[in-house]
Design goal:
5 strands; about 190 residues; single chain; alpha/beta; globular
Length: about 190
């Protein structure tokens, strides 16, 4: 049994979503805002990148290390959240193959970056660079930096973001989007869209 779970004869154990992120701030801000109340049936634990160890292989190693140390329950899910923008396709394919061979592990990759997922809360978009996506967020939110943005203003559009991202996912059988797209919707749909 995981150290997070308690046995109660009258209650199912909580389901944990452990999320290891490539980014140090942006993803952590977002997922912490989605954190349900302590008495909810699901709980989130975010493991952001520290000390620049953001390569997807390092993110997967951090997730696996956490799983070994803390343990995960039978119903828990472990998610690796990363970007396409600066990594070689071969590296991403290697990480995707490793994740596919690990029960309870999932990959939520955004191409080109996590900011695409954030923009989809407000509007449809495609073919934009990371810089252009950040510019849209500044325009939409009044201000945006990777370490500080109004996540609450975005969350009002989370259901629309899931729909828009799913529509962009033209090859859902692929482990990660080869063109503009994000698989973050697969994780968020499990957390908030019921």
């Amino acid at each position: 049994m995981s150290r997070f779970q308690r046995r109660h004869s009258f209650r199912d154990p909580k389901r944990f979503f452990i999320i290891a992120t490539e980014g140090q701030w942006t993803e952590e801000i977002y997922f912490r805002a989605l954190r349900p109340p302590r008495d909810a049936a699901i709980q989130l634990k975010v493991l952001p990148t520290k000390k620049g160890k953001s390569h997807p292989r390092n993110v997967l190693a951090r997730l696996r290390s956490y799983d070994r140390e803390a343990g995960s329950g039978e119903r828990d899910e472990l998610w690796l959240v990363a970007d396409r923008d600066s990594w070689a396709e071969a590296d991403l394919n290697q990480v995707a193959a490793a994740v596919a061979n690990l029960p309870k592990y999932h990959l939520a990759l955004s191409n080109p970056c996590f900011e695409l997922w954030l923009v989809l809360h407000r509007r449809e978009t495609s073919g934009l660079s990371s810089v252009q996506l950040q510019s849209i967020l500044k325009e939409e939110l009044g201000a945006y930096t990777k370490s500080d943005y109004n996540v609450e203003a975005l969350l009002r559009g989370v259901s629309q973001a899931v729909v828009r991202a799913e529509r962009m996912d033209v090859n859902p059988e692929h482990a990660w989007p080869r063109t503009d797209g994000t698989h973050v919707y697969r994780l968020v749909r499990k957390l908030v869209v019921r």
